């Protein structure tokens, strides 16, 4: 795990987050304009523009990591690392998100929603330009987590408790997604069209999702692969089934309940600051 001294090397949180929102915002707002203006030519431009914005935080993270020998070694050792990860955490990594959406769909039946949502959708709810949707559902979490959990999360933990780190990042992540709501036919723009409740739910859902993911991240020796798998499972299983939008609202409630359970039972883990821990003793918390 990362020692107190090593966490101190992740010291450029302000620079990382400023550039990670500024550059994608500039690119994606241009992409949004193009997607609604040049109707006969926009697909190619919006596809590559969207990808460029997605890659920006990873490029920024690598620019901060690679010149530093200690950070470089730390990064290489965590990308595919599942060493000494307890089975109970891996079960949560693989099964929590599919289980939560299935339970949410089951609960929705009591409110009169259709059981048809347990059927496989046979398609997707959004477009990703020239890229297959299934490809983006896998590629986007990989690219994002290689940025957020290679540098972003640890740089915040260098300043705040894990609880505050998670809440700050969830807020930032919500803002980071904002321009995508204006890109024609993309997931977030389609979400806006379904209604304000579901748009707000997406933003609110990020808070328990991030908190749970960071809990897993630090319990699993800061394995970036763990966060990638968890992130992919969330996207895939929210697209596989013909899920009612209200079921996703219910899922958010379930994840909030689980987050409260985690905080209540791991207060010292979530509330202590860097100054109060010499080592993050993984798996024994």
Describe, in plain words, how this protein is organized in 3D:
The two termini are 13 Å apart. The model is unreliable at 1-5 and 277-285 (pLDDT under 50). It contains twelve helices and no strands. 70% of the residues lie in helices and 0% in strands. It is globular and about 50 Å long.
Task: Please supply descriptive tags for the structure shown above.
mainly alpha, globular
Q: Let me know the largest β-sheet.
A: none
Q: Would you identify the regions where 5 or more consecutive residues have pLDDT less than 50?
A: 1-5, 277-285
Helix-strand category: mainly alpha
Average the pLDDT over all residues and give the rounded result: 89
* First-to-last CA distance: 13 Å
- Proportion in helices: over 70%
Write down the oligomeric state: single chain
Distinct helical segment count: 12
Topology, element by element:
Layout: H1 4-7, H2 13-37, H3 42-65, H4 69-76, H5 87-109, H6 133-157, H7 162-177, H8 187-194, H9 196-219, H10 224-240, H11 245-265, H12 267-271
Helix pairs in contact: 2-3, 3-6, 5-10, 5-11, 6-7, 6-10, 7-9, 8-9, 9-10, 9-11
Please provide a brief summary of the model.
This protein is mostly helical and 285 residues long. The protein contains twelve helices and no strands.
């Amino acid at each position: 795990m990362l020692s107190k001294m090593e966490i101190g090397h992740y010291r450029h949180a302000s620079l990382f987050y400023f550039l990670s929102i500024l550059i994608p915002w500039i690119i994606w707002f241009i992409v949004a304009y193009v997607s609604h203006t040049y109707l006969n030519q926009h697909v190619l431009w919006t596809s590559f523009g969207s990808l460029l914005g997605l890659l920006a935080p990873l490029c920024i993270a690598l620019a901060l990591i690679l010149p530093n020998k200690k950070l470089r070694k730390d990064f290489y050792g965590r990308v595919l690392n599942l060493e000494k990860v307890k089975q109970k955490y891996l079960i949560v990594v693989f099964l929590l998100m599919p289980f939560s959406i299935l339970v949410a769909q089951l609960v929705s039946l009591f409110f009169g929603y259709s059981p048809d949502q347990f059927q496989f959708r046979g398609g997707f709810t959004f477009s990703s330009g020239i890229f297959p949707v299934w490809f983006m559902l896998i590629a986007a979490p990989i690219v994002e987590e290689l940025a957020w959990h290679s540098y972003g999360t640890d740089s915040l933990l260098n300043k705040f408790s894990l609880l505050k780190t998670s809440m700050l990042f969830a807020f930032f992540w919500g803002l980071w997604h904002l321009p995508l709501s204006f890109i024609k036919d993309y997931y977030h723009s389609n979400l806006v069209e379904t209604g304000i409740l579901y748009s707000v739910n997406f933003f609110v859902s990020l808070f328990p999702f991030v908190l749970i993911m960071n809990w897993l991240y630090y319990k699993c020796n800061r394995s970036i692969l763990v966060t990638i798998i968890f992130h992919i499972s969330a996207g895939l299983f929210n697209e596989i089934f013909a899920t009612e939008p209200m079921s996703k609202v219910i899922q958010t409630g379930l994840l909030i309940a689980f987050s409260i359970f985690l905080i209540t039972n791991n207060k010292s883990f979530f509330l202590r600051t860097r100054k109060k821990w010499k080592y993050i003793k993984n798996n024994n918390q």
